[in-house]
Amino acid sequence: MYIYIPWSMRFYPRRSICVLWCCLTLLSCARDEEIAIDATSADLRANNVPADQADPVLTNSLRVLVHGYLQQVEFDFANVETNLTRLQSDIVRFLDSPDTDTMNTMRSGWLNAHVAFELTTLHHYFAGMLLAEQESLTLLQLQYRTNHWPILPGYIDYVDGYPNSGIVSDITVVLDVPSLRQQHGTFDLAEATLGFHVLEFLIWGENPDGNTLRPASDYESISQLTALQADGGLKLVQLGKNRRRQLLSLTAQVLMEDFQSTQSLWQESSSLFREKVNLMDSPELLILLMTAMTSMLTEELLVRSLYPLLNGDYTDSIQSPYSHSTQNAVAAQLSSVEGLLLESKSGTGTPLDALLVTISTDFEEFFYQNFDSSKECLALLYPNLKLPENPRATLQAEFEIVECINLLTNTINHLEQIKIGVSNPSNPV
């Protein structure tokens, strides 16, 4: 059993750097991952499993499996586009008739689209290791525009105690696509104007307790100025509700555009991906798949969420605080790992997890024991998260968070040890 030492002394500063710096930093990490894969593969050739000695049957099976995974990626991207199209239609119907029913339909549409998108998170990590440097940077920039969190809600619209905050009330900010793109993260990454979570806030409002939802009346169209407004020189398009309606529509439009750009980047690179896969031997293919999974689990769940939670950050560590649906996003990310292990199959119909059993003698029992427990732990953790009110509640919360961290860390470590098994085939993990 692996023992986790909590990072309670680790400090996580607020994100107050420019977007380009962030993208370049993430790109550097992605390139480091790629270099690490190349270096590990070179070491395998030099010391353990040279390409000409790699099991040709296993190599061919893995190539077929990865090609099948590439087809699954294309299917998942198409599913996101379908759900985003439905969401756009839901938003149009809501704006035509803003009431509780059409708003609830729009909320359901957002939840479905966001879960579909989170199912592609693993694909982004996989692609990032195969793309050239410029394309990797483009992918990261698109990811920032599409699904960045946390966001600063007061930068967008009113929040508790500040009824006139945000660009909805700031009539000096032009509401059109170029302006929203320019405003997005100009001075701080959290000052977002684009993406799923801006849309989430516009649809749910702050909603701190899960029951104080934004009313549909926030989006009622105003077609006539009051005498006071007319005397003040205001125009109809400058009124808060009308600007909010416009912002909702524009945010959905840009979200679709940015996702389609991601989809196009994948399609344009798919031939390159297949060529690279056909040049890889079995150790390289396994390392590629293992690294995609461990990188996603580490970055998305440990680094961005669970470690900050352990340090008492109950604000920026929650992905979907307005819809209270973080557990849905996490479940989708874990499902993508499970899908790669169980649904991507070789030419003989063998799934990836069955191939890994031949490398790790306790993979079936140990890995899935921790993986399944991680899913259960996280599914219980996120819906019940709230700022502890006393020391006893703080201690209990820390215990639950550490439990999830330990289980997830064990899962990741076991995948990492499979790499050791690949490099030392005579000594199974």
Keywords summarizing the entry:
single chain; 14 helices; A middle domain of Talin 1; mainly alpha; 429 residues
Structural class label: mainly alpha
CATH superfamily: M75 peptidase, HXXE motif
Name the CATH class.
Mainly Alpha
Given as residue ranges, the uncertain stretches (5+ residues, pLDDT < 50) are 1-53
> What is the count of distinct domains?
1
Please provide the ordered H/E string of secondary-structure elements: HHHHHHHHHHHHHH
Summarize the main sheet. Answer: none
Share of helical residues: 55-70%
Please tell me the CATH architecture by its name: Up-down Bundle
Mean pLDDT: 86
| Strand composition percent | under 5%
How are the elements arranged and paired?
Layout: H1 19-48, H2 56-96, H3 100-118, H4 121-128, H5 133-147, H6 177-183, H7 196-204, H8 227-231, H9 240-279, H10 282-310, H11 326-342, H12 352-357, H13 363-381, H14 391-423
How would you sum up this structure, described in words?
- The protein has 429 residues and is mostly helical.
- The chain has one domain (19-423): M75 peptidase, HXXE motif (A middle domain of Talin 1, Up-down Bundle).
- Helix content is 65%, strand content 0%.
- It has helices at 19-48, 56-96, 100-118, 121-128, 133-147, 177-183, 196-204, 227-231, 240-279, 282-310, 326-342, 352-357, 363-381, 391-423.
- Helix 1 (19-48) packs across helix 5 (133-147), helix 3 runs parallel beside helix 11 (326-342) and helix 13 (363-381) runs antiparallel to helix 14 (391-423).
- The longest helix has 41 residues, at 56-96.
- The protein is globular, with a radius of gyration of 24 Å.
- It starts with 18 loop residues before the first helix and ends in a 6-residue tail after the last helix.
- Residues 1-53 have low confidence and may be disordered.
